[in-house]
Amino acid sequence: MIPLTLGEMAAIVGGTTVGGRPDVLVTAPAVLDGRQAEPGGLFVAFVGDQVDGHDYAGQAGAAGAVAVLGSRATQLPTVVVDDVQAALQKLAAHVVARLRGRLTVVALTGSQGKTGTKDLVAAVLSRSAPTVATTGSLNNEIGVPLTMLRTDAATRFLVLEMGARHIGDIAALTALVAPDIAVVLNVGQAHLGEFGSRAAIARTKSELVAGLAPGGTAVLNADDPRVTAMRALTDGPVLTFGRAEHADLRVLDPQLDGQGRPSFTLRSAEASTPVSLRVVGAHQALNASAAAAVGLAAGVPLAESAAALAGAGLSPWRMEARALDCGAMLLNDSYNANPDSTRAALDALAAVEGERRIAVLGTMLELGEESEAEHRGIGEYAAARADVVAVVGESARPIAQGAGERAVTLADNDVAVAWLRDRLAAGDVVLVKASRGVRLDEVAARIE
Question: Considering the entire predicted model, what is its pTM?
Answer without folding.
Answer: 0.90
